[in-house]
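seq:
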Amino acid sequence: MDMKLNPRYKSFYFNDKDELPEIKIDPAKTCLLVMNMQEAMIGRISDETEWGKESGYGSTWKDFMDRLDYITIPCVSELLAKAREKGIKVAYGTISNFYTGEKEDPIIAELKPQDGDRIYTRSCRPGKSIAAGTSFIDDMKADGIETVVIVGMATDQCISSSIRVLSDEDFEVICVEDACASDSLDQQEWELRALNFTYCLVVSQLQMMDILG
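struct:
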């Protein structure tokens, strides 16, 4: 297994690190947490949409949307399939509809929850962690969960705040970098650099698949 540390996620504090530590996963004590992969939040923003035309910002979101379409969503889909194969608990963090404030903003069809998956919905406010107004932490501790693997979006907002609070609560946290997305790749890399080794371990999707066997 190649567990070399991606130099993009090496911070000043851990400049001597070249490899990740050995990571062992106990499926019975692990949860895969999928953050904010909802229809309204992932609705393609382009110069052809009403908002894109009105704002003139549509084309500035192209890289973000392409990353979601071609990297993040396929990676999350593969990890979901592997987690379910291994009997790993799956949970979803959702946020009230960003545009309407309504709680009903379905998760995209490619990542649709299955019976037994838990969904934790927070109020509509950017950056809220999975713990904000939910029973996620209490439920995970009651179920004997020790490791949380986190994927989804946005890396520098809800994922970052969730990683930090989960670390504070003594969970082992793993962030799968190519199964995450942020508004810009620069923001994603800066945030993961700050989180790596201090609050979580940052791994690639291929490394995570190897860890899961």
